[in-house]
């Protein structure tokens, strides 16, 4: 609703800025001059001991010479009470004795009806609050005492007790002259489905008042004292006044506290919020007996940019946190997200505060994790990705989840984060089991003929004669890795098609491995359909032009089928063959490394077979190509070396 400029002028004229500010600060009596409206105090917006916050009451403006905060009374209320604009205007209008500008007749009529319902709830709160000190409430008081709630906490949260009589509240409200239709409409009294009788909804329960962000009484929550009650906790029903999916327990006070703490804690229930507040962490709210809804998420984000979801450390708490991910993903925008802090197993925030105080809870909150971590854990925990089909299923699910994110920037960053986690899980092996934390464990032994597992060479193997940079197999391997990467950059559509093979392919040259990783990170991302933009992002990530770097290594010329404009089927065949050779050579180098390490003791008949098989495998790997060229040069050196090891029977210990 638009407000006329005259209304703003009226607010500023009637409301004293120093009166409003004086509720949040302690004036410095030595520097202040009330007669001139010249007031000084320590700034409420940053921690300081000196009085650098100045209020000019006559002009209606404030300014801090320390943090440079400035504004008028409207801005001050909005920032210190963490209020939306219209909420701040309504509060100031009340201070000034003004009525907000008239709305349309239907809206005014609805507002009047809601005010009537709120009056019923307010009267109920006061009545039940008084009952807590009565004889019937002895058990309730003992329970609250066992939970460690102090008298001032009971007062702060207006906790009360509903007597066990069937219509005690009903009679009280009728005696106050409140209409029966409003009493029923408020949800405080219900009508029986069996016999149409009326009864007090919360009878026999400890009650927790629920107020909206403006402090208006909208409903109650109740905790049963009877262990046989059908529901341990009970919220008021949905009414014209109370929409539980768009309300939060402790909303108003938490909003103000969150403005000072620059944080918001989202706990599971009433007692968690109360315990946290009593421990000094007043910036806590809770959903009202339901899983967190879209409406509640939006309310949280109006209070803080990154609410911390602090759920119980049991299976139900973990499930609730993971369900919330699906609700939050489509709503994410830059700067608005969630972090998650699961309590120790079997504990809730109330338990943590009781055992370790506010410090223990604060330390836990400091470990809160980003939502993308929980998303990844949910999709991978306890699963084995030992086949292309299982990996493809994971990829499809991740793409589906990314597709629910509507903001392009958020989608891009989520895609990048998930790709990093995927690479960390799968690495260069082909069989991985996830424990949910991004760690991986592989089955089987190092590479053998017929095995899927490829082991990259150790540092010792890379620095042996087999890994010399100037010539031999290492030079050939470097040329092959350059050819593969250049071919991928020249044919991005084939790179996307061969993504799994590229990701598993061992890289023996560290500087080229970083180019491969950048390729997977950017060019193959489903978020980068435009290859040109992806290449630019890849270049920025690396800090150099990858094509120039690759083509500068002129150990061999680039195969014609990997050059730009080459026939797509031939280019795919060439890429597949080069990748297959790379995998074979890496495995052979690992095998030779293991064999050389084993050739130190007594004879091992298996060594002969291992070296022979390595030699045969290498020959088979190098025999074919798109052009059917024969292997030569460095290839022959590796073959000769393996043959020499066998002929000289080097595994036999010499005297």
TrEMBL record:
Cofactor binding notes: Binds 1 zinc ion per monomer.
Region of interest: Disordered: 428-454
Cofactor(s) demanded: Zn(2+)
Molecular function GO labels: DNA binding; DNA-directed RNA polymerase activity; zinc ion binding
Domain Toprim: 262-344
PROSITE patterns cross-referenced by the UniProt entry: TOPRIM
Cellular component, GO annotation: cytoplasm; DNA-directed RNA polymerase complex; primosome complex
Pfam families: DNAG_N, Toprim_4, Zn_ribbon_DnaG
Enzyme class per UniProt: transferase
Zinc fingers (CHC2-type), renumbered ranges: 43-67
Reactions catalysed according to its record: ssDNA + n NTP = ssDNA/pppN(pN)n-1 hybrid + (n-1) diphosphate
EC number(s) from the headed UniProt entry: 2.7.7.101
InterPro entries: DNA_primase_core_N_sf, DNA_primase_DnaG, DNA_primase_Znf_CHC2, DnaG_bac, DNAG_N, DnaG_primase, TOPRIM_DnaG_bac, TOPRIM_dom
Entry's free-text remark on domains: Contains an N-terminal zinc-binding domain, a central core domain that contains the primase activity, and a C-terminal DnaB-binding domain.
Stored NCBIfam families: dnaG (TIGR01391)
Protein name: DNA primase
Organism: Pontivivens insulae
Lineage per the UniProt record: Bacteria, Pseudomonadati, Pseudomonadota, Alphaproteobacteria, Rhodobacterales
Gene: dnaG
């Amino acid at each position: 609703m638009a407000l006329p400029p005259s209304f703003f002028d009226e607010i500023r004229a009637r409301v004293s800025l120093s009166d409003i500010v004086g509720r949040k600060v302690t004036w410095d009596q030595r520097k202040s001059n009330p007669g001139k409206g010249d007031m000084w105090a320590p700034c409420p917006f940053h921690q300081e001991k000196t009085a650098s916050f100045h209020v000019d009451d006559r002009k209606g403006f404030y300014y801090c010479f320390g943090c440079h905060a400035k504004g008028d009374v409207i801005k001050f209320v909005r920032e210190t009470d963490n209020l939306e604009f219209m909420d701040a205007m309504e509060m100031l209008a009340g201070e000034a004795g003004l009525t907000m500008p008239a709305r349309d007749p239907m809206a005014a009529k609805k507002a009047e009806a809601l005010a009537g319902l709120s009056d019923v709830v307010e009267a109920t709160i006061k009545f039940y609050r008084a009952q807590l000190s009565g004889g019937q409430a002895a058990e309730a008081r003992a329970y609250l005492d066992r939970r460690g709630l102090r008298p001032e906490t009971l007062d702060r949260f207006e906790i009360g007790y509903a007597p066990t009589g069937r219509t005690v509240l009903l009679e009280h409200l009728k005696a106050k002259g409140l209409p029966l239709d409003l009493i029923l409409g408020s949800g405080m009294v219900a009508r029986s489905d069996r016999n149409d009788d009326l009864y007090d909804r919360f009878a026999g329960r400890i009650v927790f008042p629920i107020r909206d962000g403006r402090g208006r009484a909208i409903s109650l929550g109740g905790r049963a004292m009877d262990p046989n009650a059908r529901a341990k906790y009970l919220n008021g029903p949905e009414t014209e006044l109370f929409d539980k999916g768009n309300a939060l327990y402790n909303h108003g006070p938490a909003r103000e506290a969150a403005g000072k703490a620059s944080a918001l804690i989202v706990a599971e229930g009433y007692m968690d919020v109360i315990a946290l507040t009593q421990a000094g962490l007043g910036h806590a709210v809770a959903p009202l007996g339901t899983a967190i809804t879209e409406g509640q998420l939006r309310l949280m984000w109006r209070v803080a940019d990154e609410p911390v979801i602090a759920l119980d450390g049991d299976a139900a708490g973990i499930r609730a946190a993971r369900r919330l991910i699906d609700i939050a993903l489509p709503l994410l925008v830059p700067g608005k997200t969630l972090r998650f802090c699961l309590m120790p197993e079997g504990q809730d925030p109330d338990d943590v505060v009781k055992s370790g105080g506010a410090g223990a809870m604060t330390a836990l909150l400091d470990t809160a994790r980003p939502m993308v971590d929980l998303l990844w854990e949910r999709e991978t925990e306890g699963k084995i990705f030992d086949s292309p089909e299982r990996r493809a299923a994971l990829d499809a699910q991740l793409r589906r989840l990314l597709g629910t994110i509507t903001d392009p920037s958020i989608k891009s960053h989520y895609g990048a984060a998930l790709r990093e986690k995927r690479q960390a899980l799968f690495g260069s092996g082909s069989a991985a089991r996830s424990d949910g934390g991004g760690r991986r464990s592989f089955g089987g032994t190092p590479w053998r003929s017929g095995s899927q597992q490829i082991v990259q060479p150790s540092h010792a193997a890379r620095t042996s004669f087999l890994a010399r940079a100037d010539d031999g197999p290492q030079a050939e391997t470097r040329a092959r890795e350059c050819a593969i990467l250049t071919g991928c950059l020249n044919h991005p559509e084939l790179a996307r098609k061969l993504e799994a093979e590229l990701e598993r392919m061992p890289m023996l040259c560290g500087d080229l491995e970083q180019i491969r990783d950048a390729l997977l990170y950017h060019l193959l991302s489903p978020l980068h359909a435009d290859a040109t933009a992806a290449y630019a992002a890849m270049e920025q990530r690396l800090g150099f032009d990858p094509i120039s770097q690759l083509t500068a290594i002129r150990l061999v010329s680039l195969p014609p089928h990997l050059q730009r404009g080459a026939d797509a089927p031939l280019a795919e065949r060439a890429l597949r063959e080069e990748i297959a050779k790379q995998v074979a050579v890496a495995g052979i180098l690992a095998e030779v490394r293991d064999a050389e390490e084993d050739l130190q003791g007594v004879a091992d008949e298996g060594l002969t077979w291992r070296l022979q098989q390595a030699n045969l495998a290498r020959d088979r790997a190098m025999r074919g190509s798109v052009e059917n060229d024969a292997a030569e040069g460095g290839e022959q050196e590796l073959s000769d070396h393996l043959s020499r090891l066998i002929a000289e029977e080097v595994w036999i210990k010499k005297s």
